[in-house]
Design goal:
Shape: elongated
CATH topology of the largest domain: Jelly Rolls
Number of strands: 11
Structural class: alpha+beta
Radius of gyration: 56 Å
Number of helices: 9
Largest sheet: 9 strands, antiparallel
Mean pLDDT: 73
Low-confidence stretches: 383-397
Distance between the termini: 98 Å
CATH architecture of the largest domain: Sandwich
C-alpha cells in the first residue's frame, strides 16, 4: 500500500516533464521544430503508451485502495463490536490482562490489514488466557456467601437433587416389589395351609424326618472319628507324648526355589521309583522345646526319614531298644540334612535334647528355635523286615 502511494507522485512528475517538453518544442523555430519532431516522434509515441499504462495502473491502484479502505472499515467495525462484547462480558472483573487489550483496541484506524489482523489475534489470545485464569481461580477457590459460609454451586445442587430423586424412585420400586412378593407368599401359605385335622400329622412327619437326620449325623460322626483315630494315631503319639513346645503342619505347595531344594533332598534320600508322601511335615520347635525318645510308627511312614535342620543347630541322640548302653550323639548343624533308614530307623529311638543338655564332644551346643522339614516315603509291608539295612546317613545341604 505504501509503495503504491509513493508511485503516485512519480507519475505526476513524469506528466509535468511531458508538459514542459511540449512547451519547449513550441518555442523552437519551424525548422528546428521539424527536426525535433522527426527526432523525437517515436519517443513521443512510446511515452504516450507509457502514460496510458501508468494511468491504467493508477486506476487499478485507486480501485485496490478503495477495496482496502472498505476492508479496513469492515475490520474496524468488527473490532469495535468485539470491544463492546468484551466489555459487556467481563465488566469490572477484567484485570491487568485486559488493560493491554484496551490499549491495543484504541490504536489508530490507519493501520494496515496485516497489522490489524495480528493485533486481533494477540487480543484474542490475551482474552483466552485471562478467561482461563479466571476459571482456574473460580475452580480452586470455594464459593462463600455473605456471612462466610460455604455455598453449594447451583449445578452441583441440581445434580444432587436429581440423584436423590432417582434413589427415591428406585427405593419406591423396591418397596412395591417387596410388598408384592410378601403378598404372594402370604397367599401361597394360606392356600397351602393343611386342614386343621391334619396339623398333628404334619408335625409328626417332620419330627420323624428330624430323628432320621440326627441318626445319619451321628453315624457319620462315628465314621469320621474312627478315620481320625486311624490316620492320626502316630501324630497323637508324637505330638502329645514325645514332643513338647512345638508347632507342626503339613504342606503340599511350595515356592519354586523351595520345591527345587526339596527335590534335591528327595533325590538324595530316596532311590528312584520309591513312592513318597506328597505332604511334607514341618515341625517348629521352640527354644525350650524338646523331643523325647521315640520310633516313628510304621503304619504312616516307610523305611526312610529325611529331615532338613533349619535356624539352629541341635544334638540328636540315638539309643538302641535292645541295649540302652548302646547309644550315639549326632551333631545336626544348621542347614544340614540327616537321613534315618534301616537299623537306625527301626531299632534305635531318636530324640532332640533340651538346650541345657545339648553337649557334643564335651562342648556346649547353643540351641535356639529349630525348624525341621521332614520327607517320608509311603509305608510298605516289608518295612519291618528291613532292620539290617545301613543305619544312618547325614550330609551338609
Amino acid at each position: 500500500m505504501k509503495r503504491k502511494e509513493l508511485e503516485v507522485p512519480r507519475l505526476k512528475l513524469l506528466t509535468d516533464k511531458k508538459d514542459r517538453r511540449a512547451e519547449a518544442v513550441g518555442t523552437l523555430r519551424p525548422a528546428e521544430a521539424r527536426r525535433v519532431a522527426w527526432r523525437f516522434g517515436k519517443a513521443e509515441v512510446k511515452k504516450d503508451e507509457d502514460v496510458e499504462k501508468l494511468h491504467a495502473a493508477l486506476q487499478r491502484l485507486k480501485k485496490q485502495n478503495k477495496e482496502l479502505t472498505a476492508d479496513n472499515f469492515e475490520l474496524k467495525r468488527v473490532q469495535d463490536q468485539m470491544k463492546r462484547d468484551i466489555q459487556q462480558l467481563l465488566g469490572k472483573r477484567r484485570g491487568d490482562g485486559l488493560n493491554e487489550t484496551k490499549e491495543d483496541l484504541n490504536q489508530t484506524h490507519d493501520i494496515t490489514s496485516e497489522q490489524l489482523t495480528h493485533s486481533i489475534c494477540e487480543q484474542w489470545h490475551s482474552l483466552k488466557k485471562h478467561l482461563q485464569r479466571l476459571e482456574s481461580q473460580v475452580a480452586t477457590q470455594p464459593i462463600r456467601g455473605e456471612n462466610g459460609n460455604h455455598v453449594i454451586r447451583v449445578t452441583d445442587h441440581e445434580k444432587e437433587i436429581v440423584m436423590l430423586k432417582q434413589e427415591i424412585a428406585a427405593s419406591r420400586r423396591l418397596i412395591v416389589m417387596q410388598q408384592q412378593v410378601m403378598q404372594e407368599q402370604l397367599q401361597t401359605a394360606q392356600n397351602s395351609r393343611p386342614p386343621s385335622q391334619l396339623k398333628g400329622y404334619y408335625f409328626l412327619e417332620e419330627q420323624r424326618r428330624l430323628q432320621e437326620d440326627r441318626g445319619m449325623l451321628e453315624q457319620q460322626k462315628r465314621t469320621l472319628q474312627m478315620e481320625r483315630w486311624n490316620f492320626t494315631e502316630a501324630a497323637i503319639r508324637l505330638g502329645y507324648e514325645a514332643i513338647h513346645g512345638f508347632r507342626e503342619t503339613e504342606k503340599l505347595r511350595w515356592t519354586k526355589e523351595s520345591s527345587q531344594i526339596l527335590q534335591r533332598v528327595r533325590n538324595a534320600a530316596f532311590p528312584p521309583g520309591v513312592p513318597q508322601l506328597s505332604l511334607v511335615h514341618v515341625l517348629d520347635l521352640e527354644k525350650s522345646g524338646y523331643i523325647k525318645p521315640h520310633i516313628d510308627s510304621v503304619k504312616f511312614c516307610g523305611s526312610t526319614i529325611a529331615g532338613l535342620c533349619l535356624l539352629s543347630s541341635s544334638v540328636m541322640r540315638l539309643v538302641s531298644e535292645e541295649n540302652q548302653e548302646d547309644w550315639a550323639d549326632l551333631l545336626l548343624e544348621r542347614r544340614c540334612l540327616y537321613i534315618l533308614r534301616g537299623t537306625a530307623r527301626y531299632k534305635f529311638t531318636h530324640q532332640i535334647l533340651r538346650d541345657e543338655d545339648s553337649f557334643f564332644n564335651g562342648q556346649k551346643v547353643s540351641r535356639d528355635r529349630r525348624i525341621s522339614v521332614i520327607c517320608r516315603n509311603l509305608p510298605d509291608s516289608t518295612d519291618s523286615a528291613q532292620g539290617l539295612l545301613p543305619g544312618l546317613k547325614w550330609s551338609e545341604n
